[in-house]
Amino acid sequence: MIHDLPMVLAAAFYMVSAALLYYSIGKRSESLLNRAFQVAVAGGVLHLTAQVTHWLRDGPPDVSIAPLLSLCALVCIFLLVTSSICQRTFFAAGRVALPIAAAAVLADLFVPHDPFELSKRSTGLAVLLVSSILAFG
User: Fold this and answer.
1) Can you give the pLDDT of all 137 residues of the chain as single tens digits?
2) What whole-number distance in Å separates Cα of residue 77 and Cα of residue 28?
3) Whole-angstrom Cα distance, residue 102 to residue 107?
4) Burial track 114-129 (b if 16+ CB lie within 10 A, e otherwise)
């Protein structure tokens, strides 16, 4: 797939950013915190590139749990980064968000999943609709 390399790099960048974040907090280093933030932004850009390729390519996209979790992880990273632009101390929440996002990205790549058929009613489609409504409602 076209989006595999950016997804692997995004997961690696998220984990490197989380490690730098842990280290910067232990050392109380503002420069390491800024570096962790920059690495997370780079991972987010790669993740966004992969998601655009996945969802906007020709033909129907693969709509299943793993790609949707990866999309949710991208939204979490976006919220983390945007909230940290003015006040870098908010980026400390990345200690939790970054490893979870990396796990979601890797699950999208390596866990086999069957796409939901949007034209047929199924339990998977019902779970998808209900969880989307609860998440955004």
Assistant:
1) 555 788 888 888 888 888 888 888 888 888 888 898 899 899 888 888 887 877 777 566 666 666 777 777 888 888 888 877 877 777 777 877 788 888 877 777 777 666 655 566 666 666 766 676 666 54
2) 23
3) 9
4) eebeeeeeeebeeebe
> Measured between alpha carbons, how far is 99 from 89 in angstroms, rounded to an integer?
18
77 alpha carbon, distance to own chain's centre: 6
What pTM did the predictor assign? 0.71
Structure tokens at 40: 């997370």
DSSP summary character for residue 111: S
Residues 6+ apart with CB under 8 A from 63: 115, 116, 118, 128
DSSP string, 60-76: ----SHHHHHHHHHHHH
How far is the C-alpha of 118 from the C-alpha of 103, rounded, in Å? Answer: 26
| Class of residue 18 by CB neighbours under 10 A (exposed 0-12, middle 13-18, buried 19+) | buried
